[in-house]
Amino acid sequence: MERMETWREACLVPLERMKRVSDAMLHKMDVGLSETGTNLPMLPTYVTQQPSGKETGHYFTLDLGGTNFRIAYIQLSEQVSKVELRREAKWNIPKENMEGTADGLFGLLAEAFKEFLEQLESDGIPLNRDKIVLAFTFSFPMDQNALDSGKLLFWTKGFNIPSCVGKDVVVLLADAMHRSGIHGVVIPAVLNDTVGTLAAAQYFDETAKVGVIFGTGSNAAYVEEIEKIKKMRAKDYHSKHMVVDIEWSDFYTVELPIMSFDRKLDGESLHPGKATFEKMIGGMYIGEVARNMLLELIGDNILPAPSPQGKIFLATNDVIGGEQVAAICALQDVLGGELVALTERLGYDDETIKIAGPVIQEIMFLVSCRAARLAGAALYSVLRKTGRVGGVTTLPTVVAIDGSMFEHHHLFRKELCKSLAELVGPEAKNIKLQLSKDGSGLGAAIVAAVADLGAQ
Ligand code: BGC
């Protein structure tokens, strides 16, 4: 079991290694604020005002970034920090639209939007069809030079539509709306989901300074002083601050515990050579990491050989999902639930399950711990960058977090909090990791409202 020992050592990422990963990220953050084209892009978002909670108005939001997209109609109340009305609908994105054409993807969004507007009207909600204000959450890296425009830099997660790269996604969406016969749509803001998550949290709490997604993909945004974003030419802002979208998906340092199974996963992925960090911490990949580890253990006879059907099953990409990894980690009884379901797919009999079950559960535990501890190191870098930790005292700070890994993977969440406590020390009690469920949609409405107020 020498191999298991090596994996334990790497996946349980010791404190010193987490610190080195964090130092490397912090250094790359500084470089990214001055230079373009690095693997930690540090993207200016043109979100310069922190919401006060006093924003009002009604807005539509469209949130695209994972395996489904959401459209919402949100009314912000006259009362401070109060959402008056929120109507929401969700659609799955067929795989062919994730890898097809720009018209296919944006046409799908526009048609759903049309359906949504009609539904609201038939429910008796009056709409001003001459001016439909829509804030667009687009959860991919964008090169922005204004709040209402963003050129896609590269696709991540399960998306790959080469013709969109370099295009302004606001224009693509607006054109699709026209083609679908929806007129009067104004898109005042396009933002990343991390930026929306942060804005939503700030609407309720001014100490929110960091927005994070630990979901299918992963990333964070934080409030930076404009003066420090050296690569930005225009500096004549009324505000001193701007939210920066870090885009850590592609972050790389030699300190990352990259193993043989990571390289295999990368080679078989939709974006080989990209998203190194996300492939170690994202919910889209964690099951694949585990599957590749199991394949290695079987290849080396550390785990018993599966049945012929089981072999075919395990050789298939994405048969183990993030939810399954989370469920297996949470099992008290190794011989129950999702673990038995998985071992049965491998064709193991009851006796074999008794031997293999604990090993498989440990694999799920190791991939989850590695993800959590690397995520903790990344979060620590962002907190140091904001100056909220690392000074004489740690300032009370809310870190708003959304995403399935944080919400549903209890071991991941527990280990993330633990790793942060190790890194920050006793003052970690001042850092509140707060679930901001579906915050990015609400945040988009708030960012649009802030822009509206500024324009008046
Ligand atoms: C994207 C980010 C996004 C994150 C979470 C990553 O794959 O590059 O822009 O914020 O996923 O959705």
Automatic annotation (TrEMBL):
<dbReference type="GO" id="GO:0008865">
    <property type="term" value="F:fructokinase activity"/>
</dbReference>
<comment type="pathway">
    <text>Carbohydrate degradation; glycolysis; D-glyceraldehyde 3-phosphate and glycerone phosphate from D-glucose: step 1/4.</text>
</comment>
<dbReference type="GO" id="GO:0004340">
    <property type="term" value="F:glucokinase activity"/>
</dbReference>
<keyword id="KW-0808">Transferase</keyword>
<keyword id="KW-0418">Kinase</keyword>
<dbReference type="InterPro" id="IPR001312">
    <property type="entry name" value="Hexokinase"/>
</dbReference>
<comment type="pathway">
    <text>Carbohydrate metabolism; hexose metabolism.</text>
</comment>
<dbReference type="GO" id="GO:0005524">
    <property type="term" value="F:ATP binding"/>
</dbReference>
<keyword id="KW-0324">Glycolysis</keyword>
<dbReference type="GO" id="GO:0005536">
    <property type="term" value="F:D-glucose binding"/>
</dbReference>
<dbReference type="InterPro" id="IPR022673">
    <property type="entry name" value="Hexokinase_C"/>
</dbReference>
<keyword id="KW-0547">Nucleotide-binding</keyword>
<feature type="domain" description="Hexokinase N-terminal">
    <location>
        <begin position="6"/>
        <end position="203"/>
    </location>
</feature>
<dbReference type="GO" id="GO:0005829">
    <property type="term" value="C:cytosol"/>
</dbReference>
<dbReference type="GO" id="GO:0006096">
    <property type="term" value="P:glycolytic process"/>
</dbReference>
<keyword id="KW-0067">ATP-binding</keyword>
<dbReference type="GO" id="GO:0001678">
    <property type="term" value="P:intracellular glucose homeostasis"/>
</dbReference>
<feature type="domain" description="Hexokinase C-terminal">
    <location>
        <begin position="209"/>
        <end position="450"/>
    </location>
</feature>
<comment type="similarity">
    <text>Belongs to the hexokinase family.</text>
</comment>
<dbReference type="Pfam" id="PF00349">
    <property type="entry name" value="Hexokinase_1"/>
</dbReference>
<dbReference type="InterPro" id="IPR022672">
    <property type="entry name" value="Hexokinase_N"/>
</dbReference>
<dbReference type="InterPro" id="IPR043129">
    <property type="entry name" value="ATPase_NBD"/>
</dbReference>
<protein>
    <recommendedName>
        <fullName>Phosphotransferase</fullName>
        <ecNumber>2.7.1.-</ecNumber>
    </recommendedName>
</protein>
<dbReference type="GO" id="GO:0005739">
    <property type="term" value="C:mitochondrion"/>
</dbReference>
<dbReference type="Pfam" id="PF03727">
    <property type="entry name" value="Hexokinase_2"/>
</dbReference>
<dbReference type="GO" id="GO:0006006">
    <property type="term" value="P:glucose metabolic process"/>
</dbReference>
